[in-house]
Amino acid sequence: MPRDPLIGLVGKPSAGKSSTLNSLTDASSKVGNFPFTTIDPQRAIGYLQIDCACARFGVSDRCKPNYGSCVNGRRSVPIELLDVAGLVPGAHQGKGLGNKFLDDLRHADALIHVVDVSGTTDAEGKVTRGYDPSVDIAWLRSEIVAWIRGNLMEKWGSIRRRHIAVKVTAVETLQNQFSGYGSTATVVARTLDKLALKEPLEEWSDETIDRVVQAFTDEKFPTVIALNKIDHPDADKNIAKIAKMQDPNTIVLCSAVSEIFLRKLAKQGYVRYTEGSEFVDTREDLIADGDPDGGGLKELDEKNKNRIENLKDMVLYRFGSTGVNQVLSKAAEILGLTPVFPVRNTTTFASGANESKAVFRDCVLVKKNSTVADVGKKLMGDAPIAYIEGAGGIRVAEDHIVAVGKNDILSFKIGRA
Prior knowledge:
Helix content: 25-40%
Distance between the termini: 25 Å
Shape: flat
Strand content: 15-25%
């Protein structure tokens, strides 16, 4: 299955970026043929939690994904993650790993900015106390804006002259400059539409150019702010401050180390824990609930018992979960990703051999407002498509939009129409 879109994880050193990546890509609880894989030193596969179409049709017992897993209609869909090089202020001027960071960044469709909300690391990731993490959010975005704006202004005179000479639209001129950031003409068009600029490009002032770059940054690199280390005593005041400054719909509270710890104990048989859940059960908990065998769990030592109790109080019961699953879900939400289920038979929902009873073997994530034709191109490339069927064998037009529960189960019939 195609792996795009690509979600980039960014953050200063010691913010918890590596822990967050590890918690998102831990496939120890997954089944199927897609174990955790590092594609290269910076790329890995995470798992996005979605509602599977199998629950809609009452066939969850036969849902066997080729990749990821599906348990009682809750599906884990693989999604590619990019560990963007660490950064420090001045990255756009080449400080730290600045050039590497910005080069990595251009490939991402959305960003997850991991922020140390405890305030115990300074701008360069060194140990401190009382640091204001809201500063990190501001300067990361300012670094991206400064990078794009600097590149644009360096050639603005030539860009303006060419624009006048060849008489093309502002979208075409800007796309020529922004294509290096992985942009498309659609992204540039949406940027300019939102600004509703009256003056033609050749008359843009420095202030207008700055507005365009700011809007383009928001459009090309939508960002989830993952406030990490929420169990630290200093986190609350910093969370409250950041919540007043940022769009709350872009913020997720999380504790990556807590998620890693719980999954490790669950894998070793010490606790019963479903990733992303509010609840964790120990042997003692299950015995108290009437199970004399304690669910077959091992006995925890006193140190880990105390750690589990603290984790329940400081993270699970206060925030409802460790927040790790919600980080990817929020990234998918801001990108407007829609899961689509390609099948061979739109009545039985089988994908493999006719005798196979397994359903909904595949799932692909497409961006919002994708058409059936877009999905076909993503899956089939330039192969000729005779016609397309939706659920129940009903013919579907190529220009129909896909959405959850609408044109999201498709069968592409190869051949000339």
